[in-house]
Amino acid sequence: MPLIPEEPQIHESAQGPRATPASGRTAPTPRPVPGPRPAAPLRPGRPGLVRPAPPVQRTPREVAAAKPGPSGPAAPAAAAQASATPQIQLIPASVEGALDAAEEAVDLLLESGRAPGDVLVITTGEAHPWAAHELSFGETSYWAQHDARDDVFYADAAVASRAASRPVVVVAVNGGSDTAAATALPVALGRAGALLIVCGDPQQINSVLGAGV
Q: What is the predicted pLDDT for the residue at 207?
């Protein structure tokens, strides 16, 4: 099913840290709306503090209406399937602006309360500067930071399949071959627990996701 580009929701007062744009990049791209976060568990109440209400007389029709419907393995299975499907957000961006759009997405996610370790960023073209820097110290150190899960992790599409699942995955379609995008997007969809944000050309993204989902 084709995706409809998200309406930009920009808050001028919330400007998070951004990587310095490379020369020749276009104007700032729209910022995404933070995706769903798991609700905090309700704090259990203390027994004996609430006095039970007196029983209420009900008619047979009211009793029949109040009876719960049938339950079984199908109900939890359906709920699990629904929760396993991540929300997808599309941020329209040019090849030159896709990485900036991904940075904006990460900034907004962190400002909204997402933990850095919840976020994985995948690039299809030029590697993110952080990934290029960390890989200069060797793959062992680079993947050790991935396993620590205490910060945003950036990976190239070629190695994205090695990355573990995270609640939020951001993909910057910032170049590379058509094969790189066609490979990275389905992998990203499989790694995203709650939200997948894709920054790039809408037509290309829809054609890839439409074929891969």
A: 82
Instruction: Count CB-CB contacts under 10 A for residue 21.
Output: 15
Spatial separation of the C-alpha atoms in residues 97 and 175, rounded to whole Å = 10
CA 191/CA 159 separation, integer angstroms: 13
DSSP for the chain reads -PPPPPPP---TT-----PPPPTT--SPPPPPPP---PPPPPPPPPTTSSPPPPP----HHHHHHHSPPP-STHHHHHHHHHHHS-EEEEEE--TTTHHHHHHHHHHHHHHTT--GGGEEEEESSSPPHHHHHHHTT-HHHHHHHHHHTSS-EEEEGGGGGGSPPEEEEEEE--SS-HHHHHHHHHHHHHHEEEEEEEEE-HHHHHHHHHHH-
pTM: predicted TM-score of the whole model, two decimal places: 0.62
Sequence-distant (≥ 6) Cβ neighbours of residue 156 within 8 angstroms: 122, 123, 127, 131
Task: Quick: pLDDT tens for 135-175.
Answer: 999 999 999 999 999 999 999 999 999 999 999 999 999 99
**Confidence (pLDDT) at 208:** 80
Beta bridge partners of 89: 197
Task: Give me the count of residues in the chain.
Answer: 213
pLDDT per position as a tens digit, 105-143: 999 999 999 999 999 999 999 999 999 999 999 999 999
